Amino acid sequence: MSLNPFDLYDVASLLTEEERAVQESVARFTNERVLPIIGDCFDQGQFPKELISEVAEMGLLGATLPEQYGGSNLGYVSYGLICQELERGDSGLRSFVSVQSSLCMYPIYAYGSEEQRMRWLPDMAAGKVIGCFGLTESHGGSDPASMKTRATKDGDAWVINGSKMWITNAPMADIAIVWAHTEDGIQGFVIEKGTPGFTVQEIKKKMSLRASATGALFFDNVRVPDANRLPNVKGLKGPLGCLTQARYGITWGPIGAAQACLEEVLAYTKERILFGRPVAATQSAQIKMADMARRITASQLLSLQLGRLKEAGKMEPTQVSLAKWNNCRMAIDIARECRDLLGGAGITTEHAAIRHALNLESVITYEGTETVHQLVVGRELTGINAF
């Protein structure tokens, strides 16, 4: 009995019935609705907004949140599988869901008031309100404590000045979760589109995540009522807690991208005839594809165990760093190797490998670069902070 080339260790058998149903549902959506259009979206530099309502109807936005807030109350392994199958389509679509769910809905749920939860979360789960997450600034992406954005209390409101850079969903967002220094530490604010002094500039000329909307946020004496301040967290633990949520999903996403590349190159090398035989019949090609399967399998098991730890309340940030580092490196290396096996044809977006390779340049960078995560693990091993 032959093994599934994309699941050599039968990870599917370790999933619950609900988890398998979630994966199969999102896989069908990716096959039927994402893959037919995503190449053109990448070419045109456009996010497929027409998919938002379908993603929402499937319960993929805020999937782990309680149903009273519009969520699906799914476990974290199910959420990881959602990320995996969406990124099998494109990192841009998975990024949209990650930002909406982990970076925008999660902080409102975890750090917001009950009034804020009821005001924003149901509409966000329904895809009626889109969010973006404003933490990174142009001068110090890996050092969020150095942010220059400031919020000053003025009566029953706050006046915010500063800017944020590389913000996913920004050009189409209705609200922004913005982190700023205050006299009482770093705090989060919900800033609504159209607030005077709040402007968004779309970032163009990207060669990565082209099917994702990216922008910069600018705040010029933006006045925000105290009712829009997230009251239940202060300090860097607020935004870093959100990033841990998102990074967890990111450990799963690149698995899907790598599987898509391997699936494509397996089919191509069986059909491509060179020197009288299929490329897949050569030792060099088989060794490369075997190595891809090895690395995908290791990443699958890594993320699954991470998910089980998270569901048990035992997951540590260092474990997330290890998985994010390993799985992003795995996927980008596989995408590049698949591009090579496709030969000249691999440089066109008619094939997925070059698109995934370019997208993964962003995925391996955002929410902690590879080097940052290596140093997080190094600090855990030695007890010495080398940042």
UniProtKB/TrEMBL annotation:
Listed GO biological process terms: fatty acid beta-oxidation using acyl-CoA dehydrogenase; fatty-acyl-CoA biosynthetic process
Metabolic or biological pathway: Amino-acid metabolism; tryptophan metabolism; Amino-acid metabolism; lysine degradation
Species of origin: Stenotrophomonas koreensis
Protein name: glutaryl-CoA dehydrogenase (ETF)
PROSITE patterns: ACYL_COA_DH_1, ACYL_COA_DH_2
Entry annotated with the keyword Zinc-finger: no
Pfam families: Acyl-CoA_dh_1, Acyl-CoA_dh_M, Acyl-CoA_dh_N
Gene Ontology MF term list: fatty-acyl-CoA binding; flavin adenine dinucleotide binding; glutaryl-CoA dehydrogenase activity
PANTHER family per the UniProt record, alphabetical: GLUTARYL-COA DEHYDROGENASE, MITOCHONDRIAL
Domain Acyl-CoA oxidase/dehydrogenase middle: 132-222
Cofactor: FAD
